[in-house]
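User: I'm putting together notes for a lab meeting next week and I want to include a structural view of one of the chains we've been expressing. I don't have a solved structure, so I'd like a prediction I can at least talk through. The sequence is below, exactly as it appears in our construct file.
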Amino acid sequence: MGAYFAGMGVLSLSERSTALGFFIIALIHFLTLLGILLSREIVIQMGTYITLLDLIFGILWVLVSFEPASASLTFLAAICLVLITSDEFKNEVKFGY
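Assistant: Thanks for the context. Below is the predicted structure for the 97-residue chain, given as structure tokens.
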């Protein structure tokens, strides 16, 4: 998700405020990834809510204007949400197998 938002930031460099917003969101997602890699339970729980927010905003974006970027955000957020809430993922992070 962080790579998606960083890419959107690079694509919108002509509009500085939009690019800055995308880079801040990308930073939040990369910090969440770091917390998941370090097996921090609180970060995994926060990451679930952040991904849920991504899904909600993606759905709203699809409803407002159907664009490839909005559809890809929605599908990517849905896949991430399914993965981060699965028991296999939690066991892998918690126990390392």
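A couple of points you could mention at the meeting. Helices lie at 2-11, 16-37, 41-64, 68-84, 87-95. Residues 41-64 form the longest helix (24 residues).

User: Perfect, that's what I needed.
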